[in-house]
């Protein structure tokens, strides 16, 4: 299972991706904004993540690595996890290597993965949970049509910094996505 977009390939992780994953997820600028990435982050962390993603691939998750075609380099991860086909739901999580921020890469990847989730997997709803203080991630959810559904106070502790944070909950229904997709493509995203 591989998805190709204009600039990216979204695919199953390989063990050889470990160096790119350490470079991206190992930066505190990235891990401190997520809930599950520890700091420091080394080769054994990346190997564990890759093996776990391969083991669960197409079972209850698709943890796509985001490969930049021009550099043949993994610049991030966009994961669909906790896929429940009976319930029609899944959760998403993502990061992009610091050096590649603000180029529209997560937007491009999310458009493709949302299509996959709703059209191929036939899901009804995606959920995304974001540190309330994470400006970029809150903005990216809203850009692709996620609806803010509420905040849980002091709900999470960062594995990278130990800091406690509030969590914003976002939901994207299939019908939200159909609407957002149209306006994103009109804007040329
Ligand atoms: C969140 C993250 C994945 C965004 O990736 P990206 O490829 O840089 O995002 P995009 O370039 O597609 O940006 C999409 C929109 O988000 C907003 N945005 C992105 N970065 C932003 C920033 N630093 N400040 C404010 N808004 C930002 C903008 O509205 C942008 O749209 P625009 O460029 O048309 O204005 C990236 O910043 C990241 O990896 N952060 C650290 C890890 C993280 O927070 N992961 C999510 C955990 S829930």
Describe the protein in words.
With 189 residues, this protein is α+β, with helices and mostly antiparallel strands. The protein has six helices and eight strands, in the order ββαααβββαβαββα. It has helices at residues 18-25, 28-31, 43-56, 105-120, 135-143, 174-186; strands at 3-4, 8-11, 62-68, 73-84, 89-96, 125-131, 147-157, 164-173. Strands 1-2-3-4-5-6-8-7 form an eight-stranded mixed beta sheet, with helices on both faces. A hairpin with a 3-residue loop joins strand 1 (3-4) and strand 2 (8-11). Helix 1 crosses helix 3 (43-56). Coenzyme A binds next to strand 5, helix 4 and helix 5.
Q: Topology of this structure?
A:
Elements: E1 3-4, E2 8-11, H1 18-25, H2 28-31, H3 43-56, E3 62-68, E4 73-84, E5 89-96, H4 105-120, E6 125-131, H5 135-143, E7 147-157, E8 164-173, H6 174-186
Parallel strand pairs: 5-6
Antiparallel strand pairs: 1-2, 2-3, 3-4, 4-5, 6-8, 7-8
Tell the overall outline.
globular
Beta-strand residue percentage: 25-35%
Largest sheet: 8 strands, mixed
> Which ligands occur here?
coenzyme A
Mean pLDDT: 97
> Unreliable segments (pLDDT under 50, ≥5 consecutive)?
none
Assign the CATH class. Answer: Alpha Beta
Terminal CA distance reads 24 Å
Please report the number of helical segments: 6
């Amino acid at each position: 299972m591989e998805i190709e977009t204009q600039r990216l390939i979204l695919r199953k992780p390989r063990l050889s991706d470990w160096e790119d994953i350490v470079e991206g997820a190992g930066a505190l600028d990235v891990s401190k904004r997520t809930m599950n990435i520890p700091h420091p982050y080394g080769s054994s962390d990346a190997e564990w993540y890759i093996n776990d993603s391969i083991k669960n691939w197409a079972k209850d998750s698709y943890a796509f690595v985001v490969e930049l075609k021009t550099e043949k380099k993994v610049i991030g991860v966009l994961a669909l996890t906790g896929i429940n086909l009976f319930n029609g739901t899944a959760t998403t999580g993502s990061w992009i290597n610091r050096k590649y921020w603000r180029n529209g890469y997560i937007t491009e990847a999310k458009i493709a993965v949302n299509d996959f989730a709703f059209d191929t997997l036939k899901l009804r709803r995606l959920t995304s949970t974001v540190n309330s203080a994470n400006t970029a991630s809150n903005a990216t959810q809203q850009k692709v049509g996620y609806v803010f559904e509420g905040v849980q106070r002091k709900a999470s502790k960062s594995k990278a910094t130990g800091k406690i944070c509030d969590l914003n909950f976002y939901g994207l229904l299939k019908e939200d996505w159909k609407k957002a997709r149209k306006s994103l493509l009109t804007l040329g995203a």
